[in-house]
Write a structure and sequence with these properties.
Layout (H helix, E strand, L loop, with lengths): L1 E9 L3 H9 L1 H7 L8 E4 L6 E7 L5 E12 L3 E11 L2 E3 L3 H4 L4 E10 L2 E10 L1 H24 L2
Antiparallel strand pairs: 1-8, 2-3, 3-4, 4-5, 5-6, 5-7, 7-8
Helix pairs in contact: 1-2, 1-4, 2-4
Length: 151
Amino acid sequence: MRKMNFEILVKAKPEEIWNAIVDDKKYREWTSAFQEGSYFEGGWNKGDKIQFLAVNVKGEKEGMFSEIAESRKPSFISIRHLGIILGGKEDTTSEAARKWVPAYENYTLTQQGDATKFEVDADADDEFYDMFKEMWPKALEKLKQVAERRD
């Protein structure tokens, strides 16, 4: 498991970025950088269970299931990934699942004048490190566009 760190300056208040993260429609927009059709089911409060999903070609849900380890609106979210979802079923025991468990994804929002620095610290399995290294900057650019749009 390797640590990844990304950041972007967004001309928006922390609350506006927070909303872009947790709002279903906005989440789907910025996370399309990872996979078209990405969405979540669950909540963003501390202790909430949450699934990060997409539908595969067979029409089955796949993705990650997690819990919100910490949630301090509008400054910090920590997501603890617990396992993967394949064929609509949660998996914690396969080799593929064990590569990810436990993994964390942390979002820190820090206001800087009329902008906010959005930082991501995430764990990635070596096999997927290069892929995420490419995807995260694209996702952050989309998140910036969504949060700055003010709709």
